[in-house]
Amino acid sequence: MTLNKTLDGFSVAWSSPSNIAIVKYWGKLPGQIPASPSVSMTLDQCRTNTEMAIQKGPFSVDFSFEGNQEVKFSERIKRYLTELSSRMPWINDYSFVIKSENSFPHSAGIASSASAFSALALCLTSIQNQITPLSELAFYKEASLLARLGSGSACRSIYPGFAAWGQDETNETFSDHYATPIKHDSRLSKLVDTIIVISQKEKRVSSSKGHSLMTNHPYAEARFLQARHSFRDSIQAIANGNIDLFNDITISEGLTLHSLMLSSTPPFMLFEPETVTIINLLLALKSRNETPFTFTLDAGPNIHLIYDESDSSYMNENVIFKIKNLFPGILFINDKMGGGPTFLGERLT
Ligand code: PMV
């Protein structure tokens, strides 16, 4: 195969979903290595569609997001590709035209970097696959590893259902370098995620800043220990269909994430007033022990309400209805557990 001839004019497109962490990744070591292991549920509707086209020529990146040139993200992609060129030297000999679009608000605390970097990583792996064909298993493992180097949590979006990322001394299956799909009981196969979008504004403090504040965090050691327990317990709960344990871990992890932000030096808070009101309402409903749901937050003010599809009417009438009454203008995104990324096609022009 004459490599350059084969790749000149090659283009590939993938659609990749976001994911919501059940056990949170918060704190990292150099090289995008997580300080503690995490578990997530892959979403279905919140996705990034990315097309990557390459032409022989000096390395350059032309990135557009929803038809507009995005200078900030374009610079981040340029740095990402430059870093990856030590692993994939062909990158240095190509110019990249990348077009991307999201199905949900950008930077709204719905992990947009997870869907963005997983879609980019899948495109890159497809190109790499032209050079060195990979087995299906190796393809997704490589895509997950490349996604991680762009944005840690992105490595989990490569897989459908639930995925785990981060080494655990009690189980050799898991790695710091890529995510691994994990089995779930049929009782967790129809989970819905109703995202309460409290704000679509850009986050006040980026995730990378938040991760860095864990380095000298007064509760770092206790947190990483807690995360390891949550990790093991959640994997068991997901495999055995232990909904109560799954629900408890999910709430605890979402609130712990924000309590770590509040206790950072300097402290920061990503809650909006509506977030606090809704959390209080949800905790009051949970304490009555009659509503079968859980909830969590990502690094932002929005709340993910997670429950079984069969409880949708109950949730609409008893929980979502109350939130709509309190805040009539609030946007809801109806998502659910998803089947992972989809290949949109490739061609040579
Ligand atoms: O992948 P990053 O670097 O954007 O960090 C994401 C961190 C959280 O979304 C808050 C938690 C997680 O595990 O997804």
Q: Would you kindly provide a written description of the structure presented here, covering whatever features stand out?
A:
With 349 residues, the chain is of the alpha+beta class. Helix 3 (112-131) crosses helix 4 (136-150) and helix 6 (220-240) packs antiparallel against helix 7. The protein has helices at residues 3-7, 71-84, 112-131, 136-150, 207-212, 220-240, 243-262, 273-287, 312-326, and strands spanning 10-23, 28-29, 33-34, 38-56, 60-65, 68-69, 94-102, 162-165, 179-182, 191-197, 293-297, 303-308, 331-336, 342-348. It has 2 domains: 10-184 and 339-348, 2-Layer Sandwich (Ribosomal Protein S5, domain 2); 186-336, Alpha-Beta Plaits (2-Layer Sandwich), CATH 3.30.70.890. The chain is built from 9 helices and 14 strands. The longest helix is centred in the middle third of the chain and has 21 residues, at 220-240. Strand 5 and strand 6 (68-69) form a beta hairpin. It starts with a helix and ends with a strand. The strands form 3 sheets. Strands 1, 4, 5, 6, 7, 8, 9 and 14 form an 8-stranded mixed beta sheet that branches. A 4-stranded antiparallel beta sheet has the order 11-12-10-13. The chain has a two-stranded antiparallel sheet with strand order 2-3. The chain binds (3R)-3-hydroxy-3-methyl-5-(phosphonooxy)pentanoic acid. Residues 21, 24-26, 38, 111, 113, 151-153, 207-208, 211, 257, 298-299 line the site of (3R)-3-hydroxy-3-methyl-5-(phosphonooxy)pentanoic acid (PMV).
